Amino acid sequence: MEKRGKKAVMMVGIDETEHSFYALEWTLTHFFPSQTAHHFQLLALHAKPSPSSLVDLQPDSGSAEFISIVGGDLNSTAHRTIQKAKDICGRKSVNVITEVVEGDARTVLCEAAERHGATVLVVGCHGYGAVKRVILGSVSDYCVQHAHCSVMVVKRPKIKHLHNSSSSHTHFPIQKV
């Protein structure tokens, strides 16, 4: 797993959603168990959208001012996201390198994985249905198709509510395989 005397890179794509932080925690639990030597260097990367990609640029519409405000919000979100990732890793005593790159998450993650020579790219899954994936675009689908390394998609298990014959509700976690 190690390349040229260095640890292999495991990159986790993070954003401000619970799905990406679940993927990070899952990765730490399964690949960075406490008090053992780690085979990977962990890199957490946040893809920050460019302000202009979120604002309709119309002449004389005040777009420049609005872009400045949106940019500040995006910077704050990136800072909070990276800090939360550092805190999660710190609680597990895992050293993490963090990076923020501006652009579309799909291409940013794939390009960064190649640039860093990642062995594995880990992404969370929002659990969108087929229609939402087509409309919104799935980062995980894109990465699976375009990344130059293995991609692990971590999906949060759904809790199903089962009804038994005695009319009481029992909750069992059921995970699709």
From TrEMBL:
Residues 10-155 form the UspA domain. Pfam families: Usp (PF00582). InterPro entries: Rossmann-like_a/b/a_fold (IPR014729), Universal_stress_UspA (IPR006015), UspA (IPR006016). Gene3D superfamilies: HUPs (3.40.50.620). It comes from the Eukaryota. This is Universal stress protein PHOS34.
